[in-house]
Amino acid sequence: RPDELSGGQQQRVCIARALAHSPKLVLADEPTGNLDPVTAQASLALLCQQCRQTGAALVMVTHSHQAAQQLDTHYQLTQGRLHKLSDSQQPMGAR
User: Fold this and answer.
1) Rounded mean pLDDT of 27-35?
2) Hey, how many other C-beta atoms are within 10 angstroms of the C-beta on 46?
3) Exposure winner among 24, 80, 85, 89, fewest CB in 10 A?
4) Is 21 strand, coil or helix?
5) Is the pTM value of this prediction over 0.85?
6) Which DSSP symbol is given to 2?
7) pLDDT band at 95; cut points 50, 70, 90
8) pLDDT digits (tens, 9 = 90+) for 32-53
9) What is the mean pLDDT of residues 18-44?
């Protein structure tokens, strides 16, 4: 039953549901929020792996630097404006 799943299990089910129909674009709003660090890392790794395997574009909004490190390109929203960050401005460890 869904109410018997842990937060991490529920998150993985949400990821599976989002990817079930092989979308070309996945929008993720704070996909690791409210998860403990180990579960957050596992859930994010699953999401990124599945997007890479299916060729889906992943657009993620996050406050987590650890989550941002998994992505290829980084933008920052400042005073209502979207700015692409240069390689030197990207979170440490980012690709």
Assistant:
1) 87
2) 16
3) 80
4) coil
5) no
6) G
7) very low
8) 887 888 888 888 888 888 889 9
9) 88
Q: Which amino acid is at 65?
A: H
Kindly give, in sequence order, each residue whose CB lies less than 8 Å from that of residue 9, ignoring residues fewer than 6 positions away: none
Alpha carbon distance 85, 1 (integer Å): 43
Nearest one of 57, 94, 93, 89 to 76, comparing CA atoms: 89
Query: Which uninterrupted H or E stretch holds 6?
Result: none
The reported pLDDT for the residue numbered 56 is: 92
The answer to whether residues 29 and 59 touch, using CB atoms and an 8 Å cutoff, is: no
Distance CA 64, CA 70 (A): 11
- In the structure encoding, which two tokens stand for residue 20, read together? 């079930």
